[in-house]
């Protein structure tokens, strides 16, 4: 897959600390790319470099294989983590202003704003002052302003913070929609369940270094712990006795109205072997490998790299 | 459209539409006009308040020696009334009573003024002046010279009446008014100070607002920090100019309106009367009349013409804009460095000090507009906008103004460059306690 955006060997030194230490990132076109890492890892610095808010000390950023230039700003939509609006300004006026700063003509901006305000059912807010809006409402306006100029690259830094579940799911749908329409999306967050739900690829940054790269599924598979969850009905004691001879049982309990066991297999052993072992002792309802959540991968990798 | 213009436009429109701007625009000229009109009005009220003063003179020498004025009436009472007056003073209806117990030529402190409240200075001064003149003449009389009466009359008629004239290159004479030049000097120096300070602070607030609202990162992903800073400074400059021009227009309308309504034939009273009255040591007499007539409304306009109002206004605009741009850049850097207004104190001080110094020097400037001190401070860009404006009405050589202007332009270019380096790092720093060392780091750091 072609990389839409590439960061090559980017170094950024701030007075006293190295924010980015030879970081390389490759974001495939038309995917959702998760930029993960603990607080202070250097994510925001990398995002700011991509947005040309600040420049790298060395290294380069390529967009469609060409070095980033200042006119590329119009191709990028950026929703920063620290985001806000002018409190005393009216919503519509402000959205129009921010859209024009992104090189949209006033007429185009008006037309597009009308479309999005209708879509989000917020036309009534147009003449309200921003300070009259709740935080979640302001986030909606910010989201619209971010995507209004149809950027090819979208960068969302912690987009879900401050959203209630209903609006968060609305936002999630919109992000998936944008991907469907061809946009490439960089997504920075601590919320790992949203990474699992949305991201195709991730990179994990810690202490200014990129320590993990790849497709979400591959990474979870790479960090699998050979756990198999078995749902069954039958004699639990007898079953446990059988399995314990060869493997370790991590957990047992009810699941979906049946009994269940979580079994840790040996390296290289697979589900077939477990099934062979228990097939005569119980009635099997389901059996699947349990992959680690991104949460677990995140914690594990960050701790390994301490 | 150019993005800097877009930013400038927003800064301008949001401010001009604010209620506070509209209120200040209307209130300002009213205050200016009030400064001219109210002292005259107060004086006219005071004048109607007549005061009776009783005199009990044990010597009998001084009857009729103290002149009545429009608002001070003196009444000589027989000496046996003293005790009655003392015990029932508050119901007697007198404002004060004067007790003379001995010949004042022999015993100068044998005179006392009683009242049940504080006696105003002008009452005391009036009595002193009258008696002193009388006593001086009495003293002269003791020398028993021939024709003394005529001599005294002649001596009392001596007046000094200096009129100030300006010699043109070609030897032509033009009437000038030092008083007018002084007023114009104070006025413009103070106005420059006021505008630089008020609008500089607005830049600081604006930058801080963007930073604490967290909108700044959204904006600088679309424009360069420098464009944002310039747009803001430019927009607020236009607000200041708008306000100034509206003030000039409205003040003129109000002043001429008031003149037409109330002062159609009498001269316009000026607030300078009051200042002169209390600060002069010498007896206020004919000199006062001079000054008063110099401030008659039409003559103000006439004298203002001698200080070249168009030039002065153009210079004011230049120095105001130059000074504003210089300080606004510094204010913007401070706004970018801090998170909230309370942190601003430590950085405000080094900016405020030159402004205050400039105002002090300007005060010296209108007394001696060509001294070394004033000259140098009218060259230093940090103080020149205020100090030079205090000199302009007194005819500053062209090369001095040109040099000072060039230095000011260089000054604000340097300040803008300097501030921009701090600004672009500062606006993205949240929750950091910033000191001068940190600012210096930012300054050195931001090369890209």
Automatic annotation (TrEMBL), chain A:
InterPro entries documented for this protein: AAA+_ATPase, ABC_transporter-like_ATP-bd, ABC_transporter-like_CS, ABC_transporter_ATP-binding, DrrA1/2-like_C, P-loop_NTPase
Every ABC transporter domain range: 5-232
PROSITE patterns: ABC_TRANSPORTER_1, ABC_TRANSPORTER_2
MF term (GO), any: ATP hydrolysis activity
Keywords on record: ATP-binding, Nodulation, Nucleotide-binding, Transport
UniProt keyword S-adenosyl-L-methionine present: no
Gene3D superfamilies xref list: P-loop containing nucleotide triphosphate hydrolases (3.40.50.300)
Similarity remark: Belongs to the ABC transporter superfamily.
PANTHER family xref list: ABC TRANSPORTER ATP-BINDING PROTEIN, ABC TRANSPORTER ATP-BINDING PROTEIN NATA
Protein name from the UniProt record: ABC-2 type transport system ATP-binding protein
Originating species: Natronoflexus pectinivorans
Taxonomic classification: Bacteria, Pseudomonadati, Bacteroidota, Bacteroidia, Marinilabiliales
From TrEMBL, chain B:
Keyword Membrane: yes
Transmembrane segments: 21-42, 180-204, 216-238, 244-262, 313-335, 347-366, 373-389, 401-423
Record's bilayer topology term: Multi-pass membrane protein
GO cellular component: plasma membrane
Location within or outside the cell: Cell membrane
Domain of life: Bacteria
Keyword Membrane: yes
Domain ABC-2 type transporter transmembrane: residue ranges: 19-420
Gene3D superfamilies linked to this entry: Periplasmic binding protein-like II
GO molecular function annotations of the record: ABC-type transporter activity
InterPro entries (UniProt xref): ABC-2_transporter_component, ABC2_TM
Alphabetical UniProt keywords: Cell membrane, Membrane, Transmembrane, Transmembrane helix
Chief subcellular location: membrane
Pfam families to which the protein is assigned, alphabetical: ABC2_membrane_3
Protein name: ABC-2 type transport system permease protein
């Amino acid at each position: 897959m072609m990389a839409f955006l590439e960061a090559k060997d980017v170094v950024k030194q701030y007075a006293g600390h190295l924010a980015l230490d030879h970081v390389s990132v490759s974001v495939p076109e038309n995917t959702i790319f998760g930029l993960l890492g603990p607080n202070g890892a250097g994510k925001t610095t990398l995002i700011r470099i991509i947005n040309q808010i600040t420049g790298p000390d060395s290294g380069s950023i390529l967009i469609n294989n060409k070095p980033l230039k200042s006119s590329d700003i119009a191709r990028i939509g950026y929703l920063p983590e620290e985001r806000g609006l002018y409190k005393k300004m009216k919503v519509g006026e402000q959205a129009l202003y921010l859209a024009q700063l992104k090189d949209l003509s006033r007429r185009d901006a008006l037309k597009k704003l009308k479309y999005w305000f209708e879509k989000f059912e917020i036309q009534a807010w147009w003449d309200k002052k921003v300070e009259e809006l709740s935080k979640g409402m302001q986030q909606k306006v910010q989201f619209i302003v971010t995507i209004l100029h149809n950027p090819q690259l979208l960068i969302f830094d912690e987009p879900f913070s401050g959203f209630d579940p209903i609006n968060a799911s609305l936002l999630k749908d919109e992000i998936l929609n944008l991907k469907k329409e061809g946009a490439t999306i960089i997504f920075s967050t601590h919320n790992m369940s949203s990474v699992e739900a949305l991201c195709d690829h991730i990179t994990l940054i810690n202490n200014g270094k990129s320590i993990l790269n790849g497709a979400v599924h591959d990474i979870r598979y790479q960090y699998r712990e050979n756990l198999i969850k078995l749902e069954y009905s039958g004699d639990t004691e007898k079953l446990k006795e059988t399995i314990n001879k060869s493997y370790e049982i991590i957990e047992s309990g009810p699941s979906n109205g049946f009994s269940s066991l979580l079994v840790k297999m040996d390296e290289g052993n697979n589900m077939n072997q477990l099934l062979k072992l228990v097939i005569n002792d119980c009635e099997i309802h389901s059996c699947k490998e349990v992959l680690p959540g991104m949460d677990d991968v995140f914690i594990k990798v960050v701790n390994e790299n301490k | 459209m150019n993005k800097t213009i877009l930013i400038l436009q927003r800064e301008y429109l949001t401010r001009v539409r604010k209620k506070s701007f509209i209120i200040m625009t209307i209130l300002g000229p009213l205050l200016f006009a009030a400064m001219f009109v109210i002292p005259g009005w107060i004086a006219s009220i005071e004048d109607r308040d007549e005061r009776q003063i009783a005199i009990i003179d044990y010597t009998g020498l001084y009857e009729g020696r103290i002149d009545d004025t429009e608002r001070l009436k003196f009444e000589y009472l027989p000496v046996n009334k003293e005790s009655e007056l003392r015990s029932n003073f508050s119901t007697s209806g007198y404002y004060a009573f004067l007790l003379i117990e001995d010949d004042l030529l022999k015993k100068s402190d044998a005179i006392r003024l009683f009242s049940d409240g504080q006696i105003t200075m002008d009452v005391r001064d009036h009595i002193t002046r009258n008696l002193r003149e009388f006593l001086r003449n009495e003293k002269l009389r003791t020398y028993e010279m021939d024709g003394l009466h005529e001599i005294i009359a002649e001596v009392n008629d001596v007046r000094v009446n200096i009129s100030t004239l300006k010699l043109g290159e070609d030897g032509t004479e033009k009437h000038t008014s030092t008083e007018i030049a002084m007023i114009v000097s104070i006025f413009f120096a103070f106005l420059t100070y006021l505008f630089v300070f008020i609008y500089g602070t607005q830049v600081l607030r604006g930058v801080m607002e963007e930073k604490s609202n967290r909108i700044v990162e959204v904006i600088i992903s679309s424009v360069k920090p420098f464009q944002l800073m310039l747009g803001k400074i430019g927009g607020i400059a236009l607000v200041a100019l708008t306000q100034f021009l509206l003030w000039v227009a409205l003040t003129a309308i109000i002043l001429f309106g008031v003149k037409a309504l109330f002062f159609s034939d009498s001269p316009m009273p000026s607030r300078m009367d009051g200042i002169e009255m209390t600060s002069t040591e010498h007896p206020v007499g004919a000199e006062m009349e001079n000054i008063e007539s110099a401030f008659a409304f039409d003559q103000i306009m006439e004298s203002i013409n001698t200080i070249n109002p168009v030039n002065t206004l153009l210079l004011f605009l230049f120095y105001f804009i130059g000074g504003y741009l210089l300080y606004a850049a510094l204010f913007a850097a401070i706004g970018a460095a801090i998170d909230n207004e309370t942190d601003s104190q430590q950085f405000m001080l080094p900016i405020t000090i030159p402004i205050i110094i400039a105002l002090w020097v300007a005060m010296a400037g209108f007394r001696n507009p060509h001294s070394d001190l004033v000259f140098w401070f009218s060259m230093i860009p940090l103080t020149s906008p205020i100090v030079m404006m205090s000199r302009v009405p007194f005819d500053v050589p062209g090369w001095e103004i040109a040099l000072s202007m060039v230095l000011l332009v260089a000054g604000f270019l340097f300040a803008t460059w300097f501030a921009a380096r701090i600004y672009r790092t500062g606006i993205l720093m949240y929750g950091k306690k910033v000191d001068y060392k940190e600012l210096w780091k930012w300054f050195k750091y931001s090369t890209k």
